[in-house]
Design brief:
Elements: H1 2-28, H2 30-33, H3 49-61, H4 66-88, H5 92-113, H6 120-132, H7 138-162, H8 171-185, H9 189-198, H10 200-227, H11 239-262, H12 268-293, H13 299-310, H14 312-327, H15 340-362, H16 369-379
Helix pairs in contact: 1-4, 1-13, 1-14, 1-15, 3-11, 4-10, 5-6, 5-16, 6-10, 7-10, 7-12, 11-12, 13-15, 14-15
């Protein structure tokens, strides 16, 4: 019975990670499908009510939400890995340093060659902070996470009050830059790499101001939740899950609607509201999926999503390979030629294919291809790839 409960718990985490992959892809694909999002410009070719509706729905319910879930699960898994190393009598710190080093290398290669922006290198750098804080008390970890959000509230509120963000964004200049970026994305491989490199300062600014700090906060919260086994042996009927839904959807949707309606990342006040409310909507998503997966109808969903989550690293990188082949000049060169709704359709199609491939791969192998390679770097030995026959 305990083995069944433990297997279910692991599937819960893997399924949540698989769910997060879909949200991350819906966001990331826009930066490959067009040069307009990174320049905060509106594409005049897609200006219908349907185009605006798709952008609005994505801003309200997807943007700035799913990387928090991915980060939370990183912190949770970090805690489980540390405890597993202690039980095995292995030295955790050297292993984790090798793992973070491998993630950093993967992240740099990913951000330069495959897509604009990358989260793996950020995880590697911020993971060093988490590694240094691995022995702090739960109360300290939560206070640091709260302090991060207090800092973001102060800095973004001051910026919203005293800095007119519109003075930094000239619509005509932004559209011209976006058109140039789109042309480069549909160019040669060197043109695509050049765009990725030119975007690094813009992406770096986002990391320093918002995404980096909130990622660390999510790491710390995930670590504490992992310590307390709060996701273990759930029945789906826990009162705390219903409370997370009630509070999370109320605050999260209100903030998401405001963020989408006011102007998204182009408005500092909207970013402030999104930063403060996005964690609530993320928590509501988690509670809803956990409750559903523990219902009679939801068990199949957990079993469907879990393999994709087990191969999250391979699938994350695979998403970038797929979008590069579809939208850039390396492949079909469709950047700038696909509507927002069609872009979401491509994201869903890629994700469905990845879910199917994950099931097929894990029927024969113990790890995803990139997970196995990273495991070899972490442990210093080659992993056993093949699934042993029962």
């Amino acid at each position: 019975m305990s083995q069944v409960l433990d297997r279910t718990r692991i599937q819960d985490i893997d399924a949540l990670r698989g769910f997060a992959l879909l949200g991350i892809l819906v966001v990331n694909i826009t930066f490959v499908a067009s040069g307009f999002p990174i320049h905060l410009a509106k594409d005049p070719a897609y200006d219908s009510w349907l185009d605006h509706s798709v952008h609005w729905l994505s801003s309200a319910f997807v943007d700035m939400k799913f990387y928090l879930l991915f980060s939370f699960l990183f912190g949770y898994s970090f805690q489980l890995q540390m405890e597993a190393a202690q039980r095995a009598g292995a030295a955790f710190k050297p292993r984790m340093l090798r793992r973070l080093g491998g993630l950093f290398v993967l992240g740099v290669l990913h951000g330069v060659f495959l897509i604009t922006g990358d989260i793996l290198s950020v995880y590697a750098i911020i993971g060093l902070i988490l590694l240094g804080m691995r022995r702090v008390k739960d109360r300290t970890a939560l206070l640091v996470a709260a302090g991060i959000y207090a800092y973001l509230f102060l800095t973004l509120a001051i910026a919203a009050l005293f800095v007119d963000s519109t003075q930094f964004i000239d619509p005509t200049t932004a559209v011209a830059a976006a058109q140039e970026t789109t042309a480069n994305l549909t160019g040669s491989f060197s043109d695509v790499i050049g765009e990725h490199v030119r975007a690094l300062p813009t992406y770096g600014l986002s990391l320093l101001t918002v995404q980096g700090p909130t990622t660390l906060a999510a790491f710390l919260i995930g670590m504490v939740v992992g310590r307390r086994r709060m996701l273990q042996n759930l029945s789906g009927n826990e009162a705390v899950l219903r409370l997370m839904q009630l509070v999370g959807f109320t605050i999260g949707i209100s903030g998401g609607v405001y963020y989408a309606s006011v102007g998204g990342n182009g408005d500092t006040g909207a970013v402030l509201i999104s930063v403060l409310t996005a964690p609530f909507l993320t928590a509501a998503y988690v509670a809803t999926l956990l409750r559903f997966m523990h219902s009679d109808r939801g068990e199949d969903v957990r079993e469907l999503l879990a393999p994709a989550g087990r191969m999250a690293l391979s699938n994350y990188l695979g998403q970038s390979v797929a979008t590069m082949l579809i939208f850039t000049g390396v492949g079909f060169g469709l950047a700038g030629q696909v509507s927002p709704l069609e872009t979401v359709g491509f994201a869903v199609g890629i994700f469905v294919l990845q879910v199917l491939l994950s099931h097929v791969w894990l029927s024969s192998f113990r790890y995803g291809p990139v997970e196995g390679a990273l495991r070899a770097v972490t442990n210093g030995t080659a992993p056993r790839w093949r699934v042993q026959a029962a």
